[in-house]
Write a structure and sequence with these properties.
Radius of gyration: 18 Å
CATH topology of the largest domain: D-amino Acid Aminotransferase, Chain A, domain 1
CATH superfamily of the largest domain: ATP-grasp fold, B domain
Number of helices: 7
Distance between the termini: 5 Å
Strand content: 25-35%
Helix content: 25-40%
Order of helices and strands: HEHEEEHEEEEEHEHHEEEH
Number of strands: 13
CATH architecture of the largest domain: 2-Layer Sandwich
Shape: globular
Largest sheet: 6 strands, antiparallel
CATH class of the largest domain: Alpha Beta
Number of domains: 2
Length: 254
């Protein structure tokens, strides 16, 4: 079962992860109010569909504009206008196929100053049933593309369930990503809370692409994709309830 970015970020926020303030919009007339509740001066408007590659995608409808499913706005009015262009339109990405997917909700969040983009994921290693960390300095790219062309830029290791997450796991990630100073400590703490969320919430995949170093030198979760173990969902009634928030085909959430 997969959930939308805004749902994933709300969940990670509960665990203390650094994510931007944001609002989900289902109706165009609510967009200006939602954007006005954030500080600016930059807003990011994101189409919410169950597919990657939104920023590089395109809409089928001409009145949606030529930009993809992730757009920057420099005013509340511009954020509202971009939201209206996306809602109800069909976004095509490399993962949707030519049919695309209808955008039924848009997420507006505060913009972030980006110094570096990094890649981070937690996955269940099917062979060992252990949780694995995967990280790369090549944030913002598909990890499959990085693996195909520059595999040396990917670090992957699993965590022994007997010991669970330990600070040295976080330091290993930090050093692999070229973090320094206070960022190392931030990384150790962030990896700890992500591991905790992963285990407690019966996740099978948690991908943060990108994890950024802001222009102020701090780590922030800029995008998040979460998938859950469907066989364990009876233990997570609040996660199951998130399915009621999506208007897409329920088969996609199995």
């Amino acid at each position: 079962m997969n959930i939308h970015e805004y749902q994933a970020k709300a969940l990670l926020r509960q665990y203390g992860a650094p994510v931007s303030d944001g609002r989900v919009v289902l109706k165009a007339e609510d967009a200006k109010t939602a954007a006005g509740e954030m500080d600016g001066p930059l807003w990011v408007v994101k189409a919410q569909i169950h597919a990657g590659g939104r920023g590089k995608g395109h809409f089928k409808e001409a009145d949606a504009g030529e930009k993809g499913g992730v757009r920057l706005a420099k005013s509340v009015e511009e954020a509202a206008e971009e939201t209206k262009k996306m809602l109800g339109r069909t976004l095509v990405t490399h993962q949707t196929g030519p049919a695309g997917k209808q955008v039924n909700r848009v997420y507006i969040e505060d913009g972030s100053g980006i110094e570096r983009e990094l890649y981070l994921a937690l996955l269940v290693d099917r062979q060992t049933s252990r949780i694995s960390f995967v990280c790369s300095t090549e944030g913002g790219m598909d990890i499959e593309e990085v693996a195909a062309h520059t595999p040396e830029k990917i670090l992957s290791f699993s965590v022994d369930p007997a010991t669970g997450y330990q600070p040295y796991h976080g330091r290993r990630v930090a050093y692999s990503l070229g973090l320094e100073g206070k960022q190392v400590k931030e990384c150790v703490g962030l990896m700890a809370l992500l591991y905790k969320a992963f285990v407690e919430r019966d996740m099978e995949m948690l991908e943060i692409n990108p994890l950024i170093v802001t222009d102020e030198g701090s780590l922030k979760v800029l995008d998040a994709k979460v998938g859950f173990d469907g066989n364990a969902m009876y233990r997570q009634p609040d996660i199951l309830a998130l399915r009621d928030e999506t208007e897409e085909d329920p088969k996609e959430l199995q």
